[in-house]
Amino acid sequence: MRKLFGLGLVLVWMSAPVLAQHKIAYIDSDRIYQNYPEFATAQQSLDRLAQGWEQDLSERQQALDDMSKEHQARELLYTSESRREKQNEISAAEEELERMRIQYFGPDGQLFHQQEQILRPIQERVLEVIQEVAEGEGYDYVFDRNGAFIFLYANESFDITDLVLEELGVDVTRISGQ
Q1: Average pLDDT of 109-132?
Q2: pLDDT higher than 60, residue 98
Q3: Which end of the chain is more exposed for a tag (fewer CB within 10 A), N or C?
Q4: Contact indicator for 30, 149 with CB cutoff of 8 Å
Q5: Are 46 and 118 spatial neighbours (Cβ–Cβ below 8 Å)?
Q6: CA gap 29, 18 in Å, rounded
Q7: What is the pTM of this model?
């Protein structure tokens, strides 16, 4: 048991110089995207698109509600055949509304595709700049403090967010108060 412990201690001791040679940095992607004008413009475009679709769905919902209220108010006046037809019409309108909701906002909906189309080039540009800055500054690893990787401690001297923003053409002196 002591030999195994000793061997483990020697391996850790021998690997310490290798680990010490790695240079690590991090970025704050939320801050980059909040201050990158191209991203803000793209996000506003997506927001307007989503608002238009929400308005369309809201109008369809209102029409459906009106149709249901009218049916309820006149239900006793309808023949059983007319009542069935009206109920079928309401059901079809409900199904259409749900189909439209999924078409706009579903996992494979139009909003998702628009985000991919509009935001992907911006995200790729940011990743390219992160790589350029990391290589230029000699970093081995760059983490995003807003991702799944959780920092319990982050030395601010390793934050290269401002360098990335500068490379993207953002005036960091204007936003340095953040």
Answers
A1: 93
A2: yes
A3: N
A4: no
A5: yes
A6: 29
A7: 0.67
Q: How far apart are CA 121 and CA 96, in angstroms?
A: 34
* 151 contacts: CB under 8 Å, gap ≥ 6: 26, 143, 145
CA distance 65 to 93: 10
Rounded-to-10 torsion of CA 121, 126, 131, 136: 130
Average pLDDT of the chain to the nearest whole number: 84
Rounded to whole angstroms, how far apart are CA atoms 78 and 70? 11
The yes-or-no verdict on residue 149 having pLDDT over 80 is no
* DSSP summary character for residue 83: H
**Phi, psi of 159, rounded to the nearest 5 degrees:** -80, 115
Give the Cα-Cα-Cα angle 67, 71, 77 (nearest 5 degrees).
Answer: 150
- Counting every residue written for the chain, the total comes to 178
Decide: 165 and 159 in contact? Cβ < 8 Å: no
